[in-house]
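User: Sequence recovery, please. Input:
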């Protein structure tokens, strides 16, 4: 079976007449896209009744859903209250995401801070282990997928993310290719660079891999901000060529400021491969 990629938007498309998730799903369908990431980045403000409506709309329109948990997460905080609040934010994202029928919840796990990277890894591992146990106990289908991050000072290199997935059964990696490009100060230039990166990911994840992509502005310290694809040196064509070569299937969410424009740009190029 060949490589199959579904493209979608990080949140409600800009061109959607209404700004709610149901309208966003309907607009995603109209655009010819196949996925939408529900954005809880400022907090989980969706109730159960709305989540059920979102799930119904996604099912009726054949749209794959994922969730981005709040930005305010640090499972390695020096303050116990902040660590506990971070767990709660992830859990609430999982709970509402499950009602929506979302496949995964992605999130930025932690800041390294004053700890060593291994101490940070252990703190994240402990917290996510508890959440995975709770998911299993509750019989929930939604999965946790830590995202690769765009700054070296932040936990979430590809290697750290994959090691976390190795240690915790049931965890999925969420590679953000723009973040990884920024993290290495623009090292992902050609198809071979992306191929080398993809080859680090265990094959068991490549049949349904959730991914992020966008243009990106960066410095030697890493990510500054997201850009439109055409404004950036991020080579989305080489990324897609590498995914095709390695027979990767899954979902790519556009996090560009022009979310649907760049999702459609990627979809059009993919169709040519």
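Assistant: Recovered sequence (273 residues):
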């Amino acid at each position: 079976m060949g490589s199959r990629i579904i493209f979608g938007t990080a949140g409600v498309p800009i061109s959607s007449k209404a700004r709610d998730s149901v309208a966003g799903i309907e607009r995603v369908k109209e655009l010819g896209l196949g996925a939408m990431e529900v954005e809880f980045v400022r907090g989980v403000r969706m109730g159960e009744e709305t989540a059920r409506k979102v799930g119904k709309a996604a099912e009726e329109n054949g749209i794959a859903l994922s969730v981005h948990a709040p930005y305010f997460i640090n499972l390695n905080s020096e303050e116990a209250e902040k660590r506990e609040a971070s767990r709660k934010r992830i859990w609430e994202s999982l709970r509402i995401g499950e009602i929506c029928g979302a496949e995964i919840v992605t999130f930025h796990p932690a800041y390294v801070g004053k700890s060593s990277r291994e101490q940070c890894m252990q703190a994240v591992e402990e917290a996510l282990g508890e959440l995975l146990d709770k998911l299993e106990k509750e019989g929930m289908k939604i999965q946790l997928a830590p995202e690769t991050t765009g700054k070296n000072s932040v936990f979430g290199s590809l290697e750290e993310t994959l090691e976390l997935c190795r240690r915790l059964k049931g965890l999925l990696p969420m590679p953000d290719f723009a973040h990884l490009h920024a993290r290495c100060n623009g090292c992902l230039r050609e198809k071979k660079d992306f191929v080398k990166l993809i080859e680090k990911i265990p094959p068991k994840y490549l049949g349904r891999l959730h991914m992020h992509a966008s243009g990106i502005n960066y410095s030697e310290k890493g990510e500054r901000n997201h850009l439109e694809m055409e404004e950036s040196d991020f080579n989305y064509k080489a990324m897609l060529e590498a995914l095709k070569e390695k027979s990767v299937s899954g979902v790519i969410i556009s996090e560009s400021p022009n979310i649907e424009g760049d999702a459609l740009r990627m979809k059009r190029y993919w169709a040519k491969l």
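The mean pLDDT is 97.
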